[in-house]
């Protein structure tokens, strides 16, 4: 009798495990089928002129002709070919006359290098940008391995942030200290032989000055991801900025209010 009961329990456990395995496989099959159906639905919607997504999010890394930047974009579809986009960007703009230098000092048999610095740099110029605009489909993918081309137009507010640029110098008493251009020690700042190195990111944050302005850009975006739910794109375009106060970046160079640059941006994100 005991052997019969043990056999029944063993059969029950085996059947239960087999049933659980079948259930897990069924769930996987259901997920694969649901994903496939979703892709088919998205392709059918695009062919019928219905928006293939309602919302998109994308992060970007920008390389500008005068600096670098990062961005975040939120998009809302209006039709299959048009979407409204909202963007926030943070950039650092460098002056075309900037040139990094490095000083070395000898101590016995050793050579020490100071932090790199830019001679004559008055301010580090950052920009925080808010923009709204349109994304328009210019050319769709002919197949899943094709490239979608979008036209981008956007503009909005640009808040310029000017952080004083400090260098480490050695004064007449052979003491090391940090100085900036707009200070009583500006002569040491502009005396190349007194400079030991740059201050890096340690100085000037509590002395930030604001410069409000406006900006606008136009660009082409090439989305090469094979799946419509994922964004993998390269964007290239032209950006213009105007500030309501003079932007002073370099000594011995005129300040400016108007800036133009070209850029390329690498974008990654998702659509829903």
Quick gist of this model?
The chain has helices spanning 2-48, 186-190, and strands spanning 55-64, 67-77, 82-93, 100-101, 104-107, 110-113, 117-118, 123-139, 148-164, 166-170, 176-180, 195-198, 209-223, 230-247, 256-271. The chain has 272 residues and is α+β, with helices and mostly antiparallel strands.
Give the SSE layout.
Layout: H1 2-48, E1 55-64, E2 67-77, E3 82-93, E4 100-101, E5 104-107, E6 110-113, E7 117-118, E8 123-139, E9 148-164, E10 166-170, E11 176-180, H2 186-190, E12 195-198, E13 209-223, E14 230-247, E15 256-271
Antiparallel strand pairs: 1-2, 1-15, 2-3, 3-8, 4-7, 5-6, 8-9, 9-13, 10-11, 10-12, 13-14, 14-15
Give an account of the 3D structure.
With about 270 residues, the protein is of the alpha+beta class. It has 2 helices and 15 strands. The protein has an 8-stranded antiparallel β-barrel. Strand 10 (about 165-170) and strand 11 form a beta hairpin. It is elongated, with a radius of gyration of 30 Å. The N and C termini lie far apart (about 60 Å). The mean pLDDT is about 85.
